[in-house]
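Methods — Computational structure assignment.
A single polypeptide chain was analysed. Its primary sequence is given first, followed by the predicted tertiary structure written as structure tokens.
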Amino acid sequence: MAGPEEEGPVPDAMQGGEAGIKVKVWDIWVRALHWGMVALIGLSWWSAETGRMDLHLTSGYIILALLLFRLAWGLLGSDTARFGRFLRSPLAALGHLRHLFRREPDTELGHNAAGGWMVLLLLAVLLLQAVSGLFADDLIFTRGPLAARAPGWLSDWMTFIHLRNFNLILALAGLHILAVLLYALAKRQDLVRPMVTGVKRLPAGWAGQPPRLGSPVLAALLLGLAAALVWALSTLG
């Protein structure tokens, strides 16, 4: 069932005067989650570095709720958000990267073959960070809500993972930013603006169908369920 955001392609002018078509490719949920996650990762780092652990825990709970929502939206949401639509074979991703420095128009409705795997990796390491935080215990001030309910060895391992995994998050985030810059400089493809506006300009000859955008009611329901689940977990500590 498509939401009210759905719209057909609209003729427009591409950058540089080349004719193009405007297509709505990213729904508000994917865009808000993307930029919200950027802010929350920064908040989590800052709150840990400054000893504001109550704020750190709150930020972690919000991140976990958003990740659970994103996993559900990846199965039930908009076409461009669905894992089954943008995850392709590793060979397809490598084939795409071989043309990284070839200047060509952007014809992808959503994530390209390599970008899809980057999204999956980022979601995986962020989920590992959030889940490990539930079991983490610094033995001084702060423990996750599930730390007291887990065996000591498990809590120790999760604490170790929670501390070390953040470096992997930073490395993948840096690689993601580098890829966006390379696309802008080498291929003249702007990947940032569509993630802000939701709209991408495709070549004028593009004759495909615009992606189906998911139901806002379903999205709100899934987000509410994710938030309720995380809140229930937070009360166990």
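Note: The beta strands are 10-13, 19-24, 199-203.
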